[in-house]
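Chain A, query sequence.
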Amino acid sequence: MSETQPIIAQLKPFLQEAWEKAGFQTLTSVQSTTIPLLIEGRDVIAESPTGTGKTLAYLLPVLNKIDPKMQNTQAVILASSQELVMQILSEIQKWAEGTDIKVATLIGGANLKRQLDKLKKSPHIIVGTPGRTYELIKQKKLKMHKVQTVVLDEGDQLLTPEHSETVKNIVKSTLADQRQLLLFSATLPPAVEKSVRNLAKDPEVIKVKKDETIDAANVEHIYFISEQREKIKILEKIARLKGLKTLVFIKDIANLTISAEKLKFKDIHVGQLHSDLTKQDRQRYLKKFREGDNEMLLVTDIAARGLDIKGVTHVVHFDFPREQDQYIHRSGRTGRFGAEGTVISIVNEREERDLKKFCKALNADPVLKEFYHGKIVDVNK
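Chain A, predicted structure.
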């Protein structure tokens, strides 16, 4: 409590009240490191694993800086997916409840007229996807000259070759001497860091590799050995277990779609999340999963980035990740903030060696399991 309080005490009363109401005891590592810098007005580039509270790390200082009496846009938050935009919106609504702070979302593919109507009401904060946001800047519908803060949420996704120019143009449409630039991301490739450094003013770079405030001791790592073509049989058995809320990572859209079809053939209906789905389908699957109607959601790494899905009990590495970081980010979806969780890897013998190496870095010991009469049991060696 002691080191958290002075930081929270620097924020406006409405945020202190919201903090009390949310019942948080301590700030996470990324929050305690970045919030004081953001309040000071520094440009910040922050890398921190999935599930470590990055959204709140920038949102509290952004909301703190808004002057509701001014009728103009003061902060622009860019996100790579529609789902992430909507998630950030709901966080803002929660933390700014009872204030006069207005927020609007700008999403590609959504009704343009409705978005123009929102802009006429002079929102203080814009949360948007890059394409639509830049389109409205070019049309002079979104005025950027009084914007004080630009946030790139999941910045490595925003600074991919396909979005990079658009994002840079949005940043450059603000006044350099009054702009604070923030980038938060689960991973920070050197090219992305270099890109942002060129846009930022003497940025502070924060890298949180592992969050000590989030207890990994509550997460169990288990695995099954299987050849690729047999993996679907194990996934089917996992899907038949009761009371689980399972996120399954599959390396590409083609494999994901085939797996969903195979499960459907066995009368197991699962949700899907990937970039080829329509916005409506993605929202429908997410809603069902969040509300517990579907107990399993098949996702690609990119589609799942930045999404906060509460209560995930199990993460399944259906296609085993090549990088240790990827294993950590995926696995961080369960066992969040003190809850218990299980990470299941379905691996062949070569991948088993990588799994043991990755787990060693997490001080975890993966346990080999098998199914017996529909239940997960230890392997009798």
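The chain has two domains: 4-207, 216-378. The chain is about 40% helix and 20% strand.
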